[in-house]
Write the structure tokens for this entry.
Amino acid sequence: MVQIKAEIISNSEVAPEHFKLILESPEIAQEANPGQFLHIRVHEGFNPLLRRPFSIYRVSSNQIEILYKIRGKGTEILSGRTPGEILDVIGPLGKGFPLPEQQNTQAPVTYLLVAGGVGVAPLLFLAERLREVKNLPAESGSRKFGKKSKIKIILLLGAKSKDYLLSEKEFKDLCDEVKVATEDGSLGFKGLITDLLRDLLNTEYSLLNTILYAAGPIFMLQEIKKIANIFKILAFGSLEENIACGLGGCWGCVVKTVQGYKRICKEGPVFNLEEVLWE
Amino acid sequence: MGIDLAVEIGNLKLKTPVLVASGTFGYEDDYVELIKENRLGALVTKTITLKPCQGNSPPRVIETPSGMLNSIGLQNEGVEIFLEKKLPLLSQLQIPIIVSIAGERIEDYGLLAKRLDKVKEISALEINISCPNIESEAECLFAQDFYLTYGVVKAVRESTDKTIIAKLSPNVTDIVSIAQAAFDAGAEALSLVNTFFGMAIDIEKRKSKLGSIYGGLSGPAIKPIALYMVYKVAQAVKLPLIGMGGVVSSQDALEFFMAGATCVAIGTGNFINPRIAREVVKGIEEYLKKNKLTSIKELIGRLGN
């Protein structure tokens, strides 16, 4: 984790109210893992006062990207910042998605990624890493995840309408399957992404060795927790909360879990949804 | 000529007059690394209690114009875990560690002070009688009542030889009388001020934005009121004061010194920038240099009019 002054390389609108910001920061790019976040000071002033947390969307060797939605004053100010300007950034922060080699359980074969709205952000980075694992030649990597392994990466992508679908093309390059759900039915399945998930689990997908990774609005994660429980699959979700310090100091961003209140910025933002007890 | 930033709080000698306020920094290695170069005069720990405390329901933090409401509820693992796991890490900073303590009953404060009295890594105790987010045996905050303030500070005074600092609440009619009570009971310094009671409401849900309905307001929004309270107490009570409430720049810190504070503590400012203290210290030095002063003491309580 570092605190740095990062130069804005680009900051452009990718869908209505949604922006992609690219920052120059080799230090953070090399250290980051999927599911971790950046804590960004959007301006020099004091109103709004606090930094804003953003999941990491993508990294390259020197650059780091976030994808964000304009939600209030902070993100609105951020969307007006221009290339060449400098942002004060802390990161990478938090604990990300557990990746295959960190799994203690039996080797999983299907990774089911469920992205609602701007929830695609941490999942694209995750899909990239999973793809790397999948592509590992058998001799250099772990045998379990070699070319001959049956790793399958499936993405369910949800949005309110097709105009709001994010990163569909990027995911198609990485995933074995991409399925779309729109609330208005303008593309793919008509309805909520969680309804699509339930249908697929009931009909098509083998539930053996499936790990689900989710990011999106809280009602989506709450529904996924229920679904994962019914179908007995391991599900990890990236949680959101107002985050003040981002460094585990203030205990402001907690969620209730089976082991008491845990900090979203430190023990999370990714949690095993089975452990989360929403009130 | 060198600039002398050293100040004293009771028996405590501080190299700089800039502290970290209670509850506003992390205990992890990487955080300690981040603030190592901050030139802090001392660090005040997150408040600890005798037994572990689970804290309040989320949401616990809400941003307001130039400020922040919190209702953390003193979540902590209790004094024993603190001593075993957190204190060793903080000691690496090699600056005085002031431990903030709180309890539900007057006796709790005495017991905590006794437990910490012989711990050599601890330089002083800050008595938090003003947290707006916990229940106590009193019907108000201890710091809202002259007699309760006296009682708690006295209980701590009788249980330790360490320097003791009382942290007062701004949510009172007359802060000077409470400050006087703390002084009479043996406090060697006062921290002024804790957060102001506050609320924010979600009009769509018609619910308070905080899980526990109300909380404490901090940040630049409260600075003028905190400054006024430091000024009033400085006029009446002859104790060193630790001024706090919205310090985010050296300008803010200098205002507190001039109002009568011996040092300042940065709280919410650490969330905006964990390295803010070093900028504040640097700014104070530059101001002293520019005004041809050699010691910070030449500014404390020096208002021209």
